Amino acid sequence: MNSAKRIQRAAVPLAAAAIALAGLLSGCGGDKGAEATAPTSSTATAAAAPAVGQAPAVAKTQGWLKIYGGAAPAGTARAVQLQVTADPSVGQRVSDGSGRSLYRFDKDTANPSVSNCSGQCAVTWPPLTVARDQALYASGIDPQLVGFIERADGTCQITIGGWPVYYFSKDTKPGDLLGQGVGGTWFAVAPNGGKALSK
Prior knowledge:
The structure is a single chain. The chain is α+β, with helices and mostly antiparallel strands. It has three helices and 14 strands. A hairpin with a 2-residue loop joins strand 12 and strand 13. The longest helix has 24 residues, at 2-25. Mean pLDDT is 82; it is low at 10-26 and 30-50.
């Protein structure tokens, strides 16, 4: 009887370790919407306004992803860049580093962050994703509003204000905004995660 209890007690920590290891090895961190940690106030200040010529400081960490306030330093490889674009038709909206428009889907949810676009939907509206060997830079967007979720396929999709963000497959060049208002549910994403609407 005592040996059975000892085996049982030994199995609990072993199971906990196996679960933790599985989380580390999964494609997106194994924690759908991992807890984000905010920096100390001095880090947040440094991230918001790096000195000229100085690389931005980490403004937020979510799981393995480091999120920086500002533009990626020149020559930074494997970075995902978010930036604000002033658009005369919708006001301020978010685009990627090459100027491609980003969208949000009204059938998704922000709290909790959930993508409801998969299969053919995700072919037409490819999610903006980030991989473990990348960093994320947010210029003109509060880094505290930026994060990621794990999709059903194991990829990590960027969120702004909790809303998963996507490209539109019919946007063929930087500045295209052909997805605006499609189906009454797709809208350019504003810097706070809201809808960028016609002015």
